């Protein structure tokens, strides 16, 4: 199946270190070679935009991440963001093509929403009667469109993070009846992550330490790049580093991350 990577921070942070290790799993250290993608939320630098980024950079490629020139560019270019979602694909449904590469993006209530899925859903064919229709032919994009449709039914406008979390827990449980449903979702305000089978996360905060990638011979001293007030949480399918305390999700658990930390919702 596919693999997921998410990052949530309290200040714009580049994901270069984590992405370089993650991308190696797209055809070099693992067999997820059917495409990849990444999306970064960014603010415009205007007053009041902090923590509520609306701008989005979105890159996808049908080539393996370990061999993609676009992935190489992302690995060298320090785009800074508070919320990032990345995905490397091992196809179970849908052909290898750009339109089937995650993460998928939709607009709702004047905001971009980004979604990526790891798993395989069988018999999930909901009626889609609103503005959200799949472009490709994956079970993942179909699930995303249904989630967007149901959010519109449940809320008249952008709800609070806590309200969204309640709705998403209910929707995730319904979809998970059809198979494996590990996913990540963000609208630039927070990062939601649901583990049907396996997800892990690590929180990085002061005092920062060294970290060494498990998929590439590379290490970094975060203390040299972060301020004492920085907080960063990374969520991934399998640990990216060999010397950090990665915490596993419980099966069926939805977690929410805000400002670089686990939110109590």
Tags for this model:
single chain, 265 residues, alpha+beta, Glutamine Phosphoribosylpyrophosphate, subunit 1, domain 1, 7-stranded antiparallel sheet, 6-stranded antiparallel sheet, 4 helices, globular
By secondary-structure content and strand pairing, the structural class works out as alpha+beta
CATH superfamily: Aminohydrolase, N-terminal nucleophile (Ntn) domain
Percent helix range: 10-25%
Contiguous uncertain segments of 5+ residues: 45-51
> Quick one: biggest sheet?
7 strands, antiparallel
The total of beta strands comes to 15
- CA-based shape: globular
From the alpha carbons, calculate the radius of gyration and give it in angstroms: 17 Å
Number of domains: 1
Beta-strand residue percentage: 25-35%
CATH architecture: 4-Layer Sandwich
Mean pLDDT: 87
Give the distance, in angstroms, between the N- and C-terminal Cα atoms: 29 Å
Give the CATH level 1 class. Answer: Alpha Beta
Strand line-up of the largest beta sheet: 3-2-4-1-12-9-13
Q: What is the CATH topology assignment?
A: Glutamine Phosphoribosylpyrophosphate, subunit 1, domain 1
Question: What is the N-to-C order of secondary-structure elements (H for helix, E for strand)?
Answer: EHEEHEEEHHEEEEEEEEE
The total of helices stands at 4
């Amino acid at each position: 199946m596919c693999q997921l990577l998410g990052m949530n921070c309290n200040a714009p942070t580049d994901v270069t270190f984590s992405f370089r290790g993650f991308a190696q799993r797209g055809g070099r250290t693992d067999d997820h070679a059917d495409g990849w993608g990444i999306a970064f939320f960014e603010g415009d630098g205007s007053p009041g935009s902090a923590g509520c980024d609306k701008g989005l950079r979105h890159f996808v490629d049908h080539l393996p991440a370990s061999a993609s020139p676009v992935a190489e560019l992302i690995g060298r270019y320090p785009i800074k963001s508070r919320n990032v979602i990345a995905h490397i694909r091992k196809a179970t449904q849908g052909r290898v093509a750009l339109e089937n590469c995650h993460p998928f993006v939709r607009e709702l209530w004047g905001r971009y929403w980004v979604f990526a899925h790891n798993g395989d859903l069988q018999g999930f064919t909901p009626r889609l009667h609103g503005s959200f229709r799949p472009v490709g032919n994956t079970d993942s994009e179909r699930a995303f469109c249904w989630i967007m449709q149901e959010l519109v039914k449940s809320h008249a406008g952008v709800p609070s993070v806590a309200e969204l979390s309640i709705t998403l827990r209910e929707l995730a449980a319904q979809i998970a009846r059809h198979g494996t449903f590990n996913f990540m979702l963000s609208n630039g305000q927070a990062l939601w992550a649901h583990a049907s089978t396996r997800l892990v996360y690590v929180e990085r905060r002061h005092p920062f330490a060294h970290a060494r990638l498990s998929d590439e011979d590379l290490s970094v001293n975060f203390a040299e790049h972060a301020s004492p007030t920085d907080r960063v949480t990374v969520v991934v399918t399998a640990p990216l580093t060999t010397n950090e305390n990665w915490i596993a999700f419980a099966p069926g658990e939805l977690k929410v991350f805000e400002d670089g930390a686990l939110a109590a919702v």
